[in-house]
Description:
- The structure is a single chain.
- This protein has about 190 residues and is α/β, with parallel strands linked by helices.
- It has eight helices and nine strands.
- The strands form two sheets. The protein has a five-stranded parallel sheet, with helices on both faces. A four-stranded mixed sheet has the order 4-3-6-5.
- Bound molecules: adenosine-5'-diphosphate and guanosine-5'-monophosphate.
Amino acid sequence: MLVVLSGPSGAGKGTICRELLSQLPEIRYSVSVTTRSPRAGEKDGVDYYFVSRKEFEEMVARGAFLEWAQVYDHFYGTPREKVEEYLASGYDVLLEIDTQGASQVKERFPAGVFIFVCPPSLQELAVRIAGRGTESPEDMEIRLRWAENELKDVSSYDYVVVNDVVKDAVEKIKSILTAEKCRCARVMQER
Ligand code: ADP
Ligand code: 5GP
């Protein structure tokens, strides 16, 4: 099962992904490729593959991405091969990607599960981005402006989860995944 999490920067997607990965042994995280610089503590190959703009363009040209998009001033993409490898090995795959990327994935994997993670409010979103302390004031401003647009895409997702308390949001997503696995169409397809 392919699981896509989207939502504005600071909504808590990364926090939720880490929890899901520690609790669900059958799920694998798709590490994205990005042209943005690593934040303090981020590791190449774990949080992202950090590449130059030229390397990213070469990957686009050779069809290495399942999807890719420009988000803020940077490029982000999902390496195709790893996702296909995990799915072929029977794992669920978790993608944490923006709304443009999610719509590309939906075209290729219509049976994927698309979940939008919302902050309780835009005010709380600003508090969380500031609290994370990883962005300059200009970058924070850009992310907050994007957030208002991203929130308009909610209706193209299957589920919306408000991340008020992390533990509750994680439980809701686990429930969604459990229910999705019981869908007749999915169960019949696997037989
Ligand atoms: P995203 O990956 O969506 O950009 P993060 O997971 O980095 O967001 O979370 C942004 C900040 O908000 C982090 O400092 C994180 O610890 C904090 N955070 C995440 N979820 C919650 C929550 N439910 N309540 C309070 N703070 C949260
Ligand atoms: P950040 O720079 O905060 O890690 O991520 C910024 C935005 O890029 C987030 O909305 C995140 O979901 C998105 N993103 C991360 N990886 C990918 C990817 O591989 N593809 C796309 N389309 N978006 C991504």
